[in-house]
Write a structure and sequence with these properties.
about 450 residues, 16 helices, alpha/beta, two-stranded antiparallel ribbon, binds S-adenosylmethionine, Rossmann fold
Length: about 450
């Protein structure tokens, strides 16, 4: 998973090549291993763990379990971080920020390795839709769910083929919005609604008025699907125009924005979206391909996933105790008038949940949360089908929550076999929880479970 990151274009983007994966070679002896369970430590009990140097990414990738599967997982983790390349931000992946996105190359490689051709693949924590987009590009049939209504909107916008006429229409509508905002600015028109104190604190007054005019015009496009795209363009520029430093930062600094800039930025960002959508659409095998099916749903319920079973699940649940999606997206949800209540009630792994408990209880609480998800996931997968998780270790106080260990322990009693794993050490910069990783570094894992 990447913190505000994540890619590559073309139909073969990120596809695992047979034989050597980039920088990771798997000894033949391990390829002969039968599929089997990974122990509580995450390692297959009868095999030593292996650590291998990678050629170009910091860190080694350690693998365990079924050799062929572990090799695919290692290949999926072996990506160039977005801080060092544009790979994570190509076409639609670069349109809108979203905390802890999966690296698109990781998603593409996992889809290629674990989803049958034309198979139905579910991402029940779909976030900004990275897995869904990559699955669509590879001709699979993606299904996404998320409890965050913004994630649902964003994924629907990205994982949908568009024609040149669709995109021209979105651009024309954006120009109408900007013209409306300019007109109102020049006429010194007042606000269309009462501003909330939170927004008054975040934006310069003239910026707030321009944003209000843009939003008001977008809302007039009642039955026009461009409305949803333009709402996302608006939320994509909100933080940049506010005094906030970023999505996951609460710090506010003064800004000096020129009159008319918000409307100009809105048009630029719409052009950028249209270009990205065109590029993504050009990668699809057919322009008439069906869009991904995306619904707001709780990953511990998945009522909307029909018919069952699906052929595979590939997903990255929230890191335990690390993010608060409700808090990170409060501004955007407010501006789009989206109801945060389901996310407030059901957010998985929310930092606020773990702040209320003692560190010593955190492992048990995380394991219970995961168990609910695994039991539900078992109900939507056929016997033998894969559930691939990309998860990072996290910490509460000085207690490390090792995702590989907790997943292996929990999944086993919820209808899954832990089949293979690849893990890569990742730096941990959070001062208050540094002690948790004193003896063993924090790691990111790609974990393959199979439905028993
Ligand atoms: C790590 S993010 C997924 C990021 C995604 N893979 C991407 O590339 O954008 C985890 C997601 O889980 C969602 N989430 C949290 N609790 C949930 C729940 N109970 N059911 C469904 N989704 C949930 C959050 O809204 C967030 O979008």
């Amino acid at each position: 998973m990447q913190r505000e990151e994540p890619q590559k274009t073309g139909p073969d983007a990120g596809k695992a090549r047979p034989g050597k994966t980039s920088g990771v070679s798997q000894p033949q002896a391990r390829q002969d291993n039968a599929r089997g369970a990974i122990g509580a430590s995450g390692a297959k009990s009868d095999e030593p763990r292996q650590r291998r140097a990678l050629t170009h990414v910091g860190g080694t990738i350690e693998t365990a379990g079924d050799a062929a599967d572990a090799k695919q997982l290692a290949h999926a983790l072996d990506v160039v971080p977005s801080s060092e390349s544009e790979a994570g931000r190509v076409h639609v992946h670069g349109f809108h920020t979203y905390p802890a996105r999966m690296h698109p190359d990781t998603a593409a490689r996992l889809v290629s390795a674990f989803v049958p051709t034309q198979g139905r693949i579910l991402d029940p924590f779909c976030g900004s839709g990275t897995v869904l987009v990559e699955a669509l590009i590879q001709g699979r049939r993606p299904i996404g769910t998320d409890l965050n209504p913004l994630a649902v909107r964003l994924s629907r916008c990205k994982a949908r083929p568009r024609t040149a006429a669709d995109l021209e229409h979105i651009r024309a509508r954006a120009n109408e919005c900007a013209a409306h905002a300019d007109e109102r600015r020049k006429a010194k028109a007042g606000a269309t609604r009462r501003f909330l104190p939170e927004d008054v604190a975040l934006f310069e007054p003239h910026v707030l008025l321009e944003l209000d005019s843009l939003r008001a015009k977008i809302e007039t496009f009642r039955d026009d699907p461009a409305r949803f795209d333009l709402q996302l363009v608006l939320t994509a520029i909100l933080v940049k125009l506010s005094g906030r430093r970023g999505d996951t930062s609460e710090a506010v600094a003064p800004r000096h924005t020129a009159a008319g800039f918000a409307a100009r930025l809105f048009v630029q960002k719409t052009d950028d979206l249209a270009m990205r959508l065109a590029e993504m659409s050009s990668l699809l095998s057919s322009p008439t391909l069906r869009p991904a099916v995306i619904e707001q749903d709780d990953a511990t319920v998945l009522r909307s996933v029909q018919p069952r079973p699906v052929d595979a699940i590939i997903t990255s649940p929230p890191y335990a105790a690390t993010y608060d999606y409700v808090m990170h997206h409060a501004l955007r949800l407010r501006w789009l008038g989206l109801n945060p209540s389901p996310l407030i009630r059901g957010e998985f792994g929310a930092r606020s949940t773990y702040q209320k408990i003692a560190p010593s209880e955190s492992r048990e609480v995380w394991s219970r949360e995961l168990a609910k998800f695994f039991q539900t996931a078992a109900g939507v997968l056929a016997k033998g089908s894969p559930l691939v998780l990309v998860m990072g270790d996290s910490a509460v106080g000085d207690v490390a929550l090792r995702a590989d260990e907790i997943v292996a322990d929990t999944a086993r009693v919820c209808g899954f076999i832990a089949s293979a794993r690849a893990s890569q050490d990742r730096p941990h910069f959070h001062g208050p929880t540094m002690a948790a990783f004193r003896t063993r570094p924090r790691a990111e894992h790609a974990i393959l479970l199979r439905r028993k």
